[in-house]
Design goal:
Helices cover about 65% and strands about 0% of the residues. It is mainly alpha-helical. The longest helix is centred in the middle third of the chain and has 34 residues.
């Protein structure tokens, strides 16, 4: 049933892909779209991997009348592994985000078109009749 649901989500995504998100209008938008895609891929892989491992552990070590529980107090090696891997993944995602932020906040190229915009909060386009 789970596989069928995932297939349905994929098919809906393919069917409505053109109507979901607008196409990026500039290089910055393309960079943000790529960053979003990388984030979804990384978090999706982690999600499915952890859920598969959780299912396997629940199935493999389910309680029976013959088996008793085993108390596992502490493992420095295990804690280093499950702290380091997410930290590296998050550092990579943050580095991609910082690169995009630098691109957005860096000075404009010399050939860029200069546009001056003036906003007036309470100015009406046409004065009200008296």
């Amino acid at each position: 049933m789970f596989i069928l649901g995932m297939w349905g989500i994929w098919e809906c995504n393919e069917l409505f892909k053109d109507r979901m998100l607008p196409i990026a209008a500039c290089k910055t938008g393309e960079n943000y779209d790529a960053m979003f895609k990388y984030t979804i891929i990384v978090t999706g892989i982690v999600f499915f991997a952890t859920q598969a491992i959780l299912f396997w552990f629940c199935f493999r070590y389910q309680g029976t009348g013959k088996r008793t529980t085993f108390y596992f107090a502490h493992s420095n090696k295990l804690e280093i592994i499950w702290t380091t891997i997410p930290a590296i993944a998050m550092a990579i995602l943050v580095a991609i985000g910082l690169r995009n932020w630098y691109d957005v906040t860096s000075p404009a190229p010399p050939e860029a078109t200069v546009v001056e915009v003036v906003g007036k909060q309470f100015k009406l386009a046409h004065p009200l009749p008296r």
